[in-house]
Amino acid sequence: MTPDAADQTGTGSSAPESPLVTAVVLNYRNYTETIDCVTALVTQDYSALNCVVVDNASPNDSFDRLQRAFGGEGRVAVLRAPDNGGYASGNNVGARWAITRYQPRYLLVINPDVAMQGVHALAELVAFANVHDDAGAVSPKVILPNGFHQGPYKRPSLIRTCIQYVFPVVWLVARKRHQRWARRAARPQRWFRTIGACMLLRADAFAAAGMFDEGTFLEGEEPILAERLASGGKYFYHYPGVTALHNHSRPGESLYTMAGLKYYFGKYRDAGPVSLSALEFCARFYDRFYKPLRRYTPFAP
Which of 118, 176, 195, 210 could share a disulfide with 151, CB 3.0–4.6 Å? Predict the structure, then answer.
């Protein structure tokens, strides 16, 4: 479905008391996973939901496969990004298009490898956001297949990050304590940011914040968005009453982690060249002496 054709699908049924939610799902190559994700989303017990699937210039036949899969589904539009500009760029393509065509109150940014548990999951997130005007983003409890809880997270500190690279035992102890807390957490709480794999965004606040910063390709999008939202008086909330399973198998840090950290600390926290060089040195120290030992720790995701 081309953007023009998708515009004719409508916004789906919407009860007056249920604000419109548009889910944005970014696909890259793995169309089967994306199809499963969207198919599950439209079974949510929330009528005021539609979906925008963005194929991020996949080098295979993903776009055609997605068009065929959802050609008869009126609540799903399939777009194709002009090029692969990364996570931020691809999701922005879908968000901009959805806001222009549908004017939703909320955007659900969800990775294709995420499955929300329970048919009322989306309705619960929306109900919470509706009564918390300062909520720019609301995320469920996100759990990996091995039981590891992803987030929520405090505001990053460059000094603390460097210390954790050089003395990873500090990181291991903090992570163990956080996992213990995450397993027991029952009350919604405001945090600096959550994991970006599944988050309900207030559409007007997201747009006012400039959406995702497209200066990143992969990694670092959430803390940057948190800084942008906070400048407008909107914040991230962790809502543990809803669980999402994240079938995420990429171990540890990616090649983009350091690029994302340097971009965030440099642009949004005013870190200078010396501080950023120190950060990179500490990361290389960790890679050289400690990273090979990660396979032996039970705390690595």
Answer: 195
